What does this fold into?
Amino acid sequence: MTPPINYDDVQGTLLRGYRADFARHFVLSISNAAAAGQFIAALVAGSNGLPKITTARRAFPKPTSFVNISFTSPGLAALGVAASDLQSFDPSFQLGATNAAVANNVGDVGTSAPATWVGGLANGGQVHVLLSLWVKDSLQTLEALSTQLRAAFAGGGMVELSAHDATALPDNKIHFGYRDSIAQPNVAGAPASKRAADDQPVVATGEFLLGYPNESGGTYSVTPTALSLNSSYAAFRILEQDVAAYDQLLETYATQAAMDTEMLAAKICGRWRNGNPLELCPTEQGTVLPNAQLNNFTYVSTDAATDDTLGLKCPIGSHIRRNNPRNAAVVGTDSTHHRIVRRAMPYGPPYDPSNPDDATRGLVGYFINASVHNQFEFLTSQWNDTDEFVKSAVPPGGSTQGNAVSNITGQDVFLGVNDPASSSFTLPALGKNGTNNTNLTGFGRTITTRGGVYCFFPSISGLGYLASLSQGS
It folds into this structure.
């Protein structure tokens, strides 16, 4: 039985999407802890002309803007959290995204290394606060609220290092042309959503909020207790997408794969660009399925007609299958132990292939989880950046048709490091030991990390504790 969640004590973005058209993420450094505490208290109360922190409780009518705030490990220390208490936090959070070992683990190397990051993010020690503002419909509202916040930063003991904007594209698409924000986890106890219900397993609350049972039967927590219940972590990421390079990749390898570019795009992602999954639409994208059907599929079945153990319909190395293997056999625990909530939006102007430009564009936002190490970093390092997590498995037709372990190579085409000297993507075919598979090799990265932060979202009561702590009360 899931303990009830006090939605009024949870920052909203942790449990619900805002469906906003614009966002601005402020990267801040604390220069005066006492003043910063007063700023935090004003945000919690919605006083001094500042917008109020948005909670997980849905308001009617829906507000036009939403604001949430998070802190890095150095940021919590700057506010007065004791070093002994910080040792209870997620180990990766303590190290931070710019730590060399952390960066290497998640593939932030080479052109994606922290030293190349923008907006002051290369120096993780000076990044203390992320304050995010989402606005529905009106760019003018975004600018007006930003003006209010910026006027308060200096008096609030904070220096703005940078700000990172995002603007929704039509039909929730990303710059590579795919419809996004389809397969969010079903979190136990989360507020009711307008998103159509699907048949995927409900994931324990404790995978996304501290203080609740998680999928392993334990509970993630920190000290002091005032910062534990109803808090969470996130990896904030700025991921630059090279659309021209991705289009060229599709053109080049579609010929080698003997298929058209749209089919190859679907095979790489696991979904057609309109969002339809290959498991339900294996030969053509067709008309967009109802939202309630877009996630109603698995990969393994005892029924040969619907089974896809070998990845003949949806390749085992596709993006969505790597990040959520569903009921496929994988080494270690199943996929419910490693889900994340995605709150990312596109940035940069839409790409026009008939008029190519050099503008920067990509995705920016949060990947939310109760354990940075066991969720975000596990997904990235174990499933996106390797091909060794798949267990031996044969289809209902037997081993002569093939084995799952032979039908995946390389790393995720989107999020892997993908050195041209070693990159590989497998298009499976029937045949023992993968003898009839097609392996596409020699491609490079088309997504580059331009910034990263590991941050902690305190509960509303936790924000009150930080505000009082930094003021010495």
In short: DSSP finds eleven helices and twelve strands in the chain. The chain has two domains: 7-239+457-470, 242-342+352-450.
